[in-house]
Every structure is written in structure tokens, then in C-alpha cells.
Amino acid sequence: MNGQQRQDIQIGAEVGVVLKPDQRTGRITRGTxxxxxxxxxxxxxxxxxxxxDGQVGRVKEFGPG
Length: 65
Description:
Structural class: mainly beta
Number of helices: 0
CATH class: Mainly Beta
Strand order of the largest sheet: 1-2-3-4
Number of strands: 4
Distance between the termini: 14 Å
Oligomer: single chain
């Protein structure tokens, strides 16, 4: 699982995302998925999600880290 398949992501899951401002550095931000924003079943850069703290990013990793 690499965050590119929508079916792999569940609301409430612990994930690592890359936020828009961190795209150049690839810095990972950890959080819990509150909403899945990408509608398509696949995205090459990762499925976009909103974390429970309101931040939005693309999933790169699963688990608490």
C-alpha cells in the first residue's frame, strides 16, 4: 500500500501525508483521516485526504509512524 489506491484508505486510519507547502521537501505530517477528498479510485501522487486537524495532503505512508 503506497497511498495511490482509494480503496486502501479508511476514515479514522493513521497516515503520513505530504502537505502542499512540503511537496518540494517531501516532509511527512502524521494524522488521522477525517475525509477522503480524491474521488477517483487511483491517483499517481497519492490520494488527497483531510486530517482530523483540518490539514489537507496526499497519503504517502500508513500507520502511526
